[in-house]
UniProtKB/TrEMBL annotation:
Enzyme class: oxidoreductase
Keywords: FAD, Flavoprotein, Mitochondrion, Oxidoreductase
NCBIfam families per UniProt: FAD_lactone_ox
Higher taxonomy: Eukaryota, Fungi, Dikarya, Ascomycota, Saccharomycotina
A GO cellular component annotation in the UniProt record: mitochondrial membrane
Superkingdom in the source lineage: Eukaryota
Name used for this protein in its record: D-arabinono-1,4-lactone oxidase
EC number, as in UniProt: 1.1.3.37
């Protein structure tokens, strides 16, 4: 049995507060040796392990009543090596280090993380384990910045992985949904520090569609926040710069009063009278951005890179995010716009805003690029690896092109359907999320592994309940679609998973893994 201290009666809650769990034991190891000991002990005791970081995933994928592991105390920098002639550095860190902690260290060295998603609370291990990405036509999955990983597999073995050392296991571990082993350290490729100069403009929805073919390659970093009930969008574009910072933009809902007032209005529309929702969203949009279309020249900010990447996620929320080929994006937006409008007219369902619309470029060159001629603010990635993870949910048919030749055909379109939980109260999501998922599925889309995708009992594997017995927000599963989408890559992932974890130490929350096709139910009876 493990000699590592543990807590009983610990209650884990994810950031959104949707799910909680009371594991039998809660561990916070402080070294790789302790992680090895812990995995071996779990194997002998026939217990399963789940590893959690910040708990920012809004899904139930990390819920367990067995053993829960948190790596927050495994957060040291192991090594920092600069390559001045190649204009990058490699930093090796413990996998429990949070991204904001890593960036603080890098800032002191004059370096920056290349690209991030919308928050920097995740751990170094957690951000790659579900396929996190940023918002850029040049950059892809965050895992493409990782040079190597060291994991403890289900047999308690320490394995060093990179493109030359066990590359197949590396491709499984780069997006493992926690089912291969525990990542204990990683080497990340970082670039000289930069600020982000951004412009923000309010445009009409129709204007967004008119610009579609050229919009997404118009800057290195780009995001659109769509407000369907106003027929408006906020277009944010950013590029690397050496210009000094001038501070973040002011925000109405960034104030305590504005935030509380907005959340109160959401609560009223959720709990008392849902048809108020479009009025609430129009009112709040006008308070934050104004009624008229604004030019990009009027709202220019220069911030540090992390502040530029990150955004205020506001309140507890359900999030259903899917990615599909950018070439199908126009039809997707038009279809969703029509469906949202009709649903409001018929009082069927209502959406919360913004709907975040983003892109990434997960195509990869055959080998890492020559970086010797880069400058500190050169656009595009410096790859840590050029291995596509087996469970990468982005289109596999897109082919790599040099930055100057990137078009929509290289890009993945991501859309976030967000529904807030004002003051922790659940808001109905099933009708809206089901329509959203069906629309994205028809467009060749797949769900983000960590989000609140629902699926259907007709797509799930293993035992299912009657539809009427599910909670409104409860996941049904996507197994048959996952098998169709990932094909041979899923078979390879399953084989590697079984080899690395023969006793299913990392199959906590088996139901989630079964209904979504991560494992074949027959594995459990072998």
């Amino acid at each position: 049995m493990s000699t590592i201290p543990f807590k009983k009666n610990y209650v884990f809650k994810n950031w959104a507060g949707i799910y909680s769990a009371k594991p039998e034991r809660y561990f916070q190891p402080t070294s790789t040796n302790e992680v090895v000991e812990l995995v071996k002990s779990a194997r002998l005791a026939e217990k399963s392990l789940v590893t959690v970081g910040s708990g920012h995933s809004p899904s139930n994928m990390c819920v367990t009543d067995e053993w829960l592991v948190n790596l927050d105390r495994l957060n040291k920098v192991q090594r920092f090596v600069e390559y001045p002639d190649l204009h990058y550095a490699d930093v090796t860190v413990d996998a429990g280090m949070r991204l904001y902690q890593l960036n603080e260290f890098l800032g002191e060295k004059g370096y920056s993380i290349q690209n991030l998603g919308s928050i920097s609370e995740q751990s170094v291990a957690g951000i790659i384990s579900t396929g996190s990405h940023g918002s850029s036509p040049y950059h892809g999955l965050i895992s493409s910045q990782y040079v190597n990983l060291t994991i403890v597999n289900g047999k308690g073995e320490l394995k060093f992985l990179d493109a030359e050392n066990d590359p197949e296991i590396f491709k499984a571990a780069l997006l493992s949904v926690g089912k291969i082993g525990i990542i204990v350290s990683a080497t990340i490729r970082v670039v000289p520090g930069f600020n982000i100069k951004s412009t923000q403009e309010v445009i009409t929805f129709e204007n967004l569609l008119k610009q579609w073919d050229t919009l997404w390659t118009s800057s290195e970093f780009i995001r659109v926040w769509w407000y369907p009930y106003t027929r408006k969008c906020v277009l944010w574009r950013g590029n690397k710069t050496a210009e000094p910072q001038n501070g973040p933009a002011k925000s109405w809902w960034g104030t305590k009063l504005g935030r509380f007032f907005y959340e109160t209005l959401l609560w009223i529309s959720t709990k008392i009278y849902a048809p108020l929702t479009p009025l609430v969203e129009r009112f709040v949009f006008n308070r934050q951005y104004g009624k008229l279309e604004k030019s990009s020249t009027g709202d220019v900010n220069v911030t540090d890179s992390i502040s530029g990447f990150n955004m205020d996620c506001l309140f507890s929320q359900f999030v259903d995010e899917w990615g599909c080929p950018m070439d199908n994006g126009l039809e997707v937006l038009r279809s969703l716009d029509h469906s949202i409008a009709q649903a409001a007219i018929n009082k069927e369902f209502y959406v919360h805003v913004p709907m975040e619309v983003r892109c990434s470029n997960t195509t990869l060159p055959a080998e890492p690029l020559d970086t010797s001629k880069r400058a500190n603010t050169s656009p595009g990635p410096v790859y840590g690896n050029v291995c596509r993870p087996f469970l990468d949910n982005t289109p596999s048919h897109c082919r790599y092109a040099p930055l100057e030749n990137v078009t929509n055909s290289q890009l993945t379109l991501y859309i976030n359907a967000t529904i807030y939980r004002p003051f922790g109260c659940n808001t109905p999501i099933h009708k809206w999320f089901t329509l959203f998922e069906n629309t994205m599925m028809v467009a060749g889309g797949k769900p983000h592994w960590a989000k609140n995708f629902l699926g259907s009992t007709t797509l799930a594997a293993g035992p299912v309940k009657k539809d009427a017995d599910y909670d409104d927000f409860e996941m049904r599963g996507m197994a048959s679609k996952v098998e169709e989408w990932y094909g041979d890559d899923l078979k390879k992932f399953r084989k590697i998973r079984k080899e690395q974890d023969p006793d299913n130490v990392f199959l906590a929350n088996k139901q989630w893994a079964i209904i979504n096709g991560i494992i074949d139910p027959s594995e459990l009876s072998d």
